[in-house]
């Protein structure tokens, strides 16, 4: 039976405008529902509603399929009210200033604590001086100092009396350095005499040497007693100061404790009570500092409360989207200032990141943004594992060697929702053994949905939502139908609709633009077609240059005639946002030998692993079809001609096999046909990717050279479901100018390409002599004999 081409109706799914019961899409009720994602939506809801630890989520799928939107909408619909949120504060650590303490307080208590401490500080600033300057304090101070003063006077009185008895006087003298100190001097002629004056009197004979010696002896004893009295007097002064300090502390204590005890009643538990006691102790231990006037610095600064997270006005769990994750934005940081040319930080310079802000709620992150920042994924993983957030300084001033501020870690409860691609999910899961324990829920968003009447209506309501939200022109039924056809094209199947609404919305926006340029109030099919055509025109520069290279003869491709061992294959070239197909000449040469199939691309390091696999499959086909009673004895060179960028994929394996069979049978292959398809060892043609682009690439070349009605493309039968061709190709097929043939086996394809029967082996493994396989078998036998005779002759 001759191979029949595909019918025009099967080349493209056409959406009839009559399927839509509206005049314009403005009549539709727009929907915010995420259509076609029931499986993913169920997984997201499960992950959001399970409160247990480790039920973080990783949401996979292509961008534009509604991943982040779905999370936000489900969060809007489920009950996330709560009364268990916490405020997060940092306060001064009275034991180690380099390690600020964290206070986790019930929501609202953080603000109360900050207001209360500010109020307490104002009261302390007023009341401490008032207590110290009160009449009671003055009286107590006077009595205390008087008692110590009397002890000091008694000590000095005793020294004075003993000196008088010995003929000495207690006087104050000025030393050469200008200091004034007490001294005992002898009385001569009713006047105290210094040592210098006494020596002069001895020299003048007014005082004898014997008297001088006695005076010195008495002076030494008296001076020792004076020194002891002075020492005891100094000790008395020190005791007086200590007693005075203790007196003042005891007088001020009730005031300080009474004020700071207000902090203990805010519901913070033991940590807050410790903080209140630390405030009181610090003031009482440093009363002189807190009682004096300090215009240059405020000693009360250390009592300030740094309220990092304030949930006083929040009644629902926080939902935080971190669009620019880095260590500072995600986990917080510590600011620094320069003081006397040295970096300085304290507890008031700590700032929270989005992770702390999401405590008790949800944090949404783009997985690629996290992985892209060096070390950020490891920090996030460790934080999730320990359920504890650590804040550290991230600025470059750390290199100056300042004392590193190390705030106390914060125990947090955050449900992290990562959004990324499936391959990134697999990479992280494969590199982190605990990944599955941290992310127990995966929600996988599909990029397409089944094409049905119900889904078409859901799809059109989403388009209506986009147009209403962005104030675009509404679509008429023809315009909506053309958008649906393009959505099917994006999936690569004509039985599904794309859910990549970011791409679909671009066509709607551009179609609205072209409609408005034509002064229309609605978008029609022509506007959508123009949007599609204009986008293709903008992106097809590389495709046009490549096609022109073929038309100019720089790249050799035949589209008529027949050649032995030569066939037109089809390749797809992918850009960032555009893909196009082009024909590629494949040639095969054969000769007797033992090398087998020589993959020239592989020999020149231009063959990818999948292409190399395809060559090995062809070798398997030869073993399966031939050489039942003789050894395969050939060397066959397989080449992608004029290919300089490398070759990968096995979609050309059937094409290479056709060229090999042509070279073996010496039967020419039609050059007005191009071929694509993967083959297995049994000769069955398997589906490939990019079938629409491949067909359209060969069609464009044939169109530019002139359509003859005989040109066409052989595609795998399995790819019929993927056909969603440009209308230009469909119209050419309908008018008989171009043909597309579905092929299931190598035998079907080789018959069409050569015009000869493929041949079926009989019970002995022999093929009809004039068939393609019979001629190939005969050539293989001949090469085996040639090689055997050559070896014998040697």
For the largest beta-sheet, the strand count, sense and barrel status come to: 7 strands, mixed
* Spatial arrangement of strands, main beta sheet: 23-24-22-21-26-29-30
Distance between the termini: 49 Å
Q: What structural class do helix, strand and pairing data support?
A: alpha/beta
Beta-strand content estimate: 15-25%
Question: Which regions contain 5 or more consecutive residues with pLDDT less than 50?
Answer: none
Helix content percent band: 40-55%
Mean pLDDT level? 87
What is the chains' assembly state? single chain
Helical run tally: 26
Task: Determine Rg (CA atoms, Å).
Answer: 48 Å
Inertia-based shape: elongated
What is the β-strand count? 30
Q: Which terms would index this structure?
A:
alpha/beta; seven-stranded mixed sheet; five-stranded parallel sheet; 794 residues; elongated; single chain
Description:
- It is built from 26 helices and 30 strands.
- It has 794 residues and is of the alpha/beta class.
- The strands form 10 sheets. A 7-stranded mixed beta sheet has the order 23-24-22-21-26-29-30, with helices on both faces. Strands 8-13-16-1-17 form a 5-stranded parallel beta sheet.
- α21 (609-625) packs across α22.
- The radius of gyration is 48 Å and the shape is elongated.
- The mean pLDDT is 87.
What's a concise summary of this model?
The chain has 26 helices and 30 strands. With 794 residues, it is an alpha/beta fold.
Please write out the topology.
Elements: H1 38-49, E1 57-60, H2 67-77, E2 86-91, E3 101-106, H3 109-132, H4 135-165, E4 168-174, E5 180-188, E6 191-192, H5 195-204, H6 209-260, H7 269-285, H8 287-291, E7 306-309, E8 319-322, H9 327-331, E9 333-334, E10 337-339, E11 342-344, E12 350-351, H10 354-357, E13 362-366, H11 367-372, H12 376-386, E14 388-389, E15 410-411, E16 415-420, H13 422-431, H14 435-438, E17 441-444, E18 448-450, H15 453-469, H16 477-491, E19 496-498, H17 501-517, H18 525-539, H19 541-551, E20 562-564, E21 566-574, E22 579-592, E23 596-599, H20 600-603, H21 609-625, E24 634-640, H22 653-665, E25 668-670, E26 673-675, E27 678-679, E28 685-686, H23 691-705, E29 712-716, H24 727-734, E30 739-743, H25 746-754, H26 772-793
Parallel strand pairs: 1-16, 1-17, 8-13, 13-16, 21-26, 23-24, 26-29, 29-30
Antiparallel strand pairs: 2-3, 2-7, 4-5, 5-6, 9-12, 10-11, 14-15, 18-19, 20-25, 21-22, 22-24, 27-28
Helix pairs in contact: 1-2, 3-6, 4-6, 6-7, 16-18, 17-18, 21-22, 22-25, 22-26
